[in-house]
Amino acid sequence: MTRLELDQLDTLLSALYEASLDNDYWADALQQLRQLFDANYVTLILKMPNVQDEEDLGLMVSVGDMKDSGKVLYFPYHHNLTPFVNQPPNKVFTVEDLMDEDEWRQSPYRIHWCASNDVYHVMAVDIATPDSGTLRFRVTRPEAASAFSEDDRALCRFLLPHLRRALNIRNLLDRSETLGSLYSKAISRLSIATMLIDEAGQVLEQNVFAREILESNDGLKVVGGRLEASYPSDNRELRRLIKAAFEQHQQDGKPQLPEAMSVTRPSGEVSLGVIIESIPTNTWAEGKGQPAAVVYIRDSVGKSHASHEVAKKLFGLTPAETALSMQLVNGLSLEEAAEALDIRRNTARAHLRAIFSKTGVRRQTELVRILLNSVAALGQGDQEP
Known about the structure:
Blueprint: H1 6-21, H2 26-36, E1 41-47, E2 58-64, E3 73-77, E4 93-94, H3 95-98, H4 101-106, H5 108-114, E5 121-129, E6 133-141, H6 150-189, E7 193-197, E8 203-206, H7 208-216, E9 220-223, E10 226-229, H8 232-246, E11 250-251, E12 254-255, E13 259-263, E14 272-278, E15 293-298, H9 308-315, H10 319-329, H11 334-341, H12 345-359, H13 364-372
Antiparallel strand pairs: 1-2, 1-6, 2-3, 4-5, 5-6, 7-8, 7-15, 9-10, 11-12, 13-14, 14-15
Helix pairs in contact: 1-2, 1-6, 9-10, 10-11, 10-12, 10-13, 11-12
Protein name: Helix-turn-helix transcriptional regulator
InterPro entries: Sig_transdc_resp-reg_C-effctor (IPR016032), Tscrpt_reg_LuxR_C (IPR000792), WH-like_DNA-bd_sf (IPR036388)
Organism: Marinobacterium rhizophilum
């Protein structure tokens, strides 16, 4: 293989690190590696199948001489009996390092998998990442092509640290994005409205509860894309809070507490509670960049979306007792709850006595408090569409 030119190296490394930030770019990175090694396939085995579980499939991603060539294609990986196992991590090897030609030709793995895909020459390395275990990198050529040379191995060893870093960055970002998604869902399940705004109060993002509050136009609204309060006095205070959130978020080395306000609702319902908190920027980021703040809104009269099934399991309630409990949590009196559930008042009272016995409380207000403070709300389905 010819010496890797500087501009070719720059293009390849750029593709690898772009892929580390966005999965959509793996197609370009793997395709460049395929062309570099004059291969018919370049494959990453992301997950090996469980030997003890026949139904557990692995996962591989590949580019090569196939339909839709050049695109990343994901396949289940069935072969837990591959001969390329138990290799030292981060060591480049080929078939010739493991067996002679006759053994390779008679290998069940080559006969049943490789031969049908015109795979004969294989260069491989098991890439150990700090947080995601071992990922298996495979470069293959057809039998008619030349075997992988020592120059090919050297080139693979040269690129290995960059490939390992790119994979590790992608794994770390995936984990961070997953955690962020879980926290966002937890906020939604607690029926807390959240939105992201910029310095001008322009709404950048919002969850489903924020959307419902803004669409009701009862206390808060969006005018020209900007968050505003219904009444001028509330709007002035809202503007002040937004300005304060974007000013220095630390004073004397100590984080400032986010400010809060109450927003009056024209409908006469209980006021909305609003907290605005700035999102700290990286200290390396010069200038304004993309400053943003989070607005948390709580509607005190909003209905609870706590999971009936979780509440039932937490407190050992029957379905009827759980249904009554949820009505009480949503602010109904016992008589109103009985009417809503289409049951008699005496039946509702009997259910309430049983609920008191199972939860260990004596008053309806205590029951509402323990239900609202329980994890029942976190057991519901996702609120985002």
